[in-house]
Amino acid sequence: MRVVIAEDNALLREGLVLLLTSAGHEVAAVAASGPEVLPALLEHRPDAAVLDVRMPPGFRDEGLRAALAARREIPGLPVLVLSQYVEETYAAELLSGGASGVGYLLKDRVGRVDEFLDALERVAAGGTALDPEVVTELMTRRRDDPLDTLTPREREVLHLMAEGRDNTTIARLLVVSDRAVSKHIGNVFAKLGLPAGDSGHRRVLAVLAYLNGG
């Protein structure tokens, strides 16, 4: 996998380079400031981009803006955004253009190497990888909506679906059968008025579209 990294913190940037190359991936380019990001993405057109939200010169949302601009120029470009904190507005804006090939993780996930690499691979394959804390924020930001009709177990299943987990993983994490997971998912779709497609990827897109108000 060819990856472009955008991170202003030199230590974390070099750590990401070492982590990805050690895992057999190629780092096509690195960017240390906001203005460097879009040109690097357009020049190298990587299989995935790993971007910090806040970058110089303003340390506001330069990385996110570059990611959104790149996805307009390169439709479907897989983007994994890293953030120091859960920034609900940024997460919602990233998801507003569609959840295909999108990830939003807190930076402390990078230290959990297997989780980080798994998330990057899911995003590169066109899937979704959302930090559990981000999903919690998105699921609780609205009141008086159909989410209130879900049972605690159905909310757990929806939470894991939004993270990008497949049925087998959900069953293992919740210590239930695959059949039980399928039943819960069917109930979730019915209560939220969403089409219950067979594809895990399609289901995640539908759920995220709902959570984003789309």
Automatic annotation (TrEMBL):
Domain HTH luxR-type: 143-213
One of the Pfam families matching this protein, by short name: Response_reg
4-aspartylphosphate modified-residue sites: 52
Signal peptide: none
GO biological process, one term: regulation of DNA-templated transcription
Molecular function, one GO term: DNA binding
Keyword list, A-Z: DNA-binding, Phosphoprotein, Transcription, Transcription regulation
Species of origin: Streptomyces lydicamycinicus
Top-level taxonomic group: Bacteria
Stretches assigned to the Response regulatory domain: 2-122
InterPro entries for the chain: CheY-like_superfamily, NreC/VraR/RcsB-like_REC, Sig_transdc_resp-reg_C-effctor, Sig_transdc_resp-reg_receiver, Tscrpt_reg_LuxR_C, WalR-like
Protein name: Putative two-component response regulator
Annotated PANTHER family: TRANSCRIPTIONAL REGULATORY PROTEIN NARL-RELATED, TWO-COMPONENT RESPONSE REGULATOR
SMART domains: HTH_LUXR, REC
